[in-house]
Structure prediction request, 210 residues.
Amino acid sequence: MLVLAIDTATTDLVAGVVDTATGDTLAEAVTATRAHNEQLVPTVQSLLDDTGRTFADLGAIVVGCGPGPFTGLRVGMATASALGQALSIPVHGVCTHDAVGAGLAGDALVVTDARRREVYWARYTDGARVAGPEVCKPADLPVDAVDVLSVPDNIEVAVDAAESTYQAPQPAGLVAVARLDQAPEPLVPLYLRRPDAVPPKQAPKSPALP
Prediction:
């Protein structure tokens, strides 16, 4: 089965076409950008063109549901949902951090930028999530006894014992943690906090009005 995997939860736009019969990634793109909305659909179309396939050849879609900022998550999840409805194929949501953590051995901490001087994190033991996802200040990260730390270069974390690297979500990782043999559950975004935009406060009623 051909699966389209997409993720817009981080500053990397991730998209790829994975063949579950062979485990091969037929085409993929991991692009550092904040223009997810403008680039996602053209990127997907380009990847399908590269494989000589069309949307009609897809059997399922896997999309990262965060944690991530509101705007970024909305792009990927809305696109996945729309494509799934148009093509009448299942859409499976997964935790973005799981796609990274599944490929890390030992005790690992996966960290992504949450903006507002905060980070999202989840902890894994041999690929299985054992804590998180959560949001906190970088100084409050539970980095004790971590073998591998996946953290963006722009985030400073005080840790000596761990191997420090950064691994973006990969299409194969997204597909690997999806339960494709089960009916998909409703897509639920992992915002972990309220969005930046808030409704304006209502102006007090003038005492001159009845």
